[in-house]
């Protein structure tokens, strides 16, 4: 991880990892090298037996101010199409380890989309979310028109996408985009605390829970509930399911084997 230039990666106690987006002069604009480093780091951490959850954060001023406009400025259609520009951003949403976005400051355009690729969004009380691409003569290109509507509903998503207006952390929490709000200086510690809580449970069971929740994006209610039930049944093949229920019955804390 030490060779990265646009992110900092640290493994912390309690089986969690912290990734800091680090392009301070560009408000963490998400250039191609940054996304490549982020994908490389998250893929490695996903396979790391010592990591049960990953926190992704930026600076107090900006989680990320979007895709790198300077990098895109002179691109032509043929290049955008043939390189399938931004397709690999979604790699982050495909890892099995839970991810928490800890958002302080601006999460705009690709920054908001990156946060939405994570499993949980926590926000500092001054965070601002938005999809301002319309002001640049373009539209969101990494799921903004699709994931935002699922989080905040059509009217609010349309407002953000068509006007470029920003949404406060408080509004984002009220609409369900954000799970919790914390004081700016406490945000990363609180995110790590939540990551440690998740990491304290059985790793395969956590991953199954994540997979089942994510399936709801793609399936009908009937199919989704059937998928959930089958995964639920499969938890009965694990020692950790037996341990969890036995510990409850015996009035003691469980010791999960698979972490
Ligand atoms: N790309 C490249 N550079 C960026 C950037 C971006 N998205 N956002 C900020 N920067 C750079 C600025 O150019 C500036 O660099 P210089 O000092 O070299 O001029 C530096 O970061 C600081 O920015 P500002 O001086 O603008 O800071 P501010 O406090 O006055 O304003 C801001 C902050 C409102 C976030 C403003 O920077 C801004 O509007 N940024 C662009 C936001 C945006 O449009 N994002 C969407 C990008 S498109 C996209 O993301 C497509 C997609 O769907 C994936």
UniProtKB/TrEMBL annotation:
<dbReference type="InterPro" id="IPR001753">
    <property type="entry name" value="Enoyl-CoA_hydra/iso"/>
</dbReference>
<dbReference type="GO" id="GO:0004300">
    <property type="term" value="F:enoyl-CoA hydratase activity"/>
</dbReference>
<keyword id="KW-0456">Lyase</keyword>
<keyword id="KW-0276">Fatty acid metabolism</keyword>
<dbReference type="InterPro" id="IPR014748">
    <property type="entry name" value="Enoyl-CoA_hydra_C"/>
</dbReference>
<comment type="similarity">
    <text>Belongs to the enoyl-CoA hydratase/isomerase family.</text>
</comment>
<dbReference type="Pfam" id="PF00378">
    <property type="entry name" value="ECH_1"/>
</dbReference>
<dbReference type="InterPro" id="IPR029045">
    <property type="entry name" value="ClpP/crotonase-like_dom_sf"/>
</dbReference>
<dbReference type="GO" id="GO:0005739">
    <property type="term" value="C:mitochondrion"/>
</dbReference>
<keyword id="KW-0443">Lipid metabolism</keyword>
<dbReference type="GO" id="GO:0006635">
    <property type="term" value="P:fatty acid beta-oxidation"/>
</dbReference>
<dbReference type="InterPro" id="IPR018376">
    <property type="entry name" value="Enoyl-CoA_hyd/isom_CS"/>
</dbReference>
<protein>
    <recommendedName>
        <fullName>Probable enoyl-CoA hydratase, mitochondrial</fullName>
        <ecNumber>4.2.1.17</ecNumber>
    </recommendedName>
</protein>
């Amino acid at each position: 991880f030490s060779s990265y230039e646009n992110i900092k990666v640290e493994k912390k106690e309690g089986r969690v990892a912290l990734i800091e987006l680090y392009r301070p002069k560009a408000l963490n604009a998400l250039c191609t090298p940054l996304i490549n480093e982020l994908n490389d780091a998250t893929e490695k951490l996903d396979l790391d037996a010592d990591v049960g959850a990953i926190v992704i954060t930026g600076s107090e001023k900006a989680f990320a101010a979007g895709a790198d406009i300077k990098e895109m400025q002179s691109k032509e259609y043929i290049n955008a199409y043939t390189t399938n520009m931004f397709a690999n951003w979604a790699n982050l949403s495909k890892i099995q380890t839970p991810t928490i976005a800890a958002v302080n400051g601006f999460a705009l355009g690709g920054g908001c989309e990156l946060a939405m690729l994570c499993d949980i969004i926590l926000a500092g009380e001054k965070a601002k979310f938005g999809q301002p691409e319309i002001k640049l003569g373009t539209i969101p290109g990494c799921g903004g028109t699709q994931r935002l509507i699922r989080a905040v509903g059509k009217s609010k998503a349309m407002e953000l996408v068509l006007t470029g207006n920003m949404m406060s952390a408080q509004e984002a929490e009220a609409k369900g985009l954000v799970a919790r709000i914390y004081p700016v200086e406490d945000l990363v510690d609180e995110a790590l605390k939540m990551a440690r809580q998740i990491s304290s449970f059985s790793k395969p069971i956590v991953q199954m829970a994540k997979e089942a929740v994510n399936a709801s994006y793609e399936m009908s209610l009937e199919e989704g509930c059937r998928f959930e039930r089958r995964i639920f049944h499969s938890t009965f093949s694990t020692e950790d399911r037996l341990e969890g229920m036995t510990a409850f019955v015996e009035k003691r804390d469980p010791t999960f084997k698979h972490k």
